[in-house]
Write a structure and sequence with these properties.
Helix content is about 35%, strand content about 35%. It contains six helices and nine strands, in the order αββααβαββββαβαβ. The strands form two sheets. A seven-stranded mixed β-sheet has the order 5-6-4-3-7-8-9, with helices on both faces.
Length: about 180
């Protein structure tokens, strides 16, 4: 098992695969599936996220995970921190009353939603996903949280594709990424 932050980061990095020209020519896809397959790498991701939260003494009531890969990392972190986990899903996937926001995709628009009673005004949340590219989905999640008058403590991702400048779109919210490419 990797020890220390640097050893954990190296372990995580060794478990990210790159696939050129996927899903289309010119894209270098970063695959996190090997992280999920390795108990040690998955533990390292959770450890590093937890260490970030605790070292900054962030007060968090809930972890908010984005559909769908944020659902993989978010509950593990929430359990470690002793807080709840809330889903942000694609429109039409949640039962009951929901609140939604539209956001732009490369070719069109989409909507993200949360159950109306999933968060309460004033709660402190961290938003988590696997990857930050252009920032559209994370920005939509931030907009949802603003609509619900929630205090966003920051955003966390396993991988950030820095050339796409997604973190710039999320300002003033802080983005913590384990790996940058």
């Amino acid at each position: 098992m990797a020890t220390g932050p640097e050893g954990k980061l190296q372990l995580v990095q060794r478990h990210v695969r790159a696939f050129p020209d996927f899903p289309k020519k010119g894209i270098l896809f970063r695959d996190i599936c090997p992280i999920l397959k390795s108990p040690a790498a998955l533990t390292a991701v959770t450890d590093l996220f937890e260490e970030h939260v605790r070292s900054r003494q962030l007060q968090v009531d809930l972890i908010v995970g984005l559909d769908a890969r944020g659902f993989l990392f978010g509950p593990l972190l929430a359990q470690r921190l002793g807080v709840g986990f809330v889903l942000v899903r694609k429109k039409g996937k949640l039962p009951g009353a929901t609140v939604s926001v539209a956001y732009d995709l490369e070719y069109g628009t989409a909507e993200a939603e949360i159950q109306e009673d999933a968060v309460a005004p004033g709660q402190k949340v961290l938003i988590i996903d696997d990857l930050l590219a252009t920032g559209g989905t994370l920005l939509a999640a931030c907009e949802l949280m603003k609509k619900q008058r929630v205090d966003i403590q920051g955003c966390m991702v396993v991988i950030e594709l820095r050339d796409l400048k997604g973190a710039d779109r999320l300002k003033p919210h802080n983005v913590f990424s384990l790996l940058q490419y």
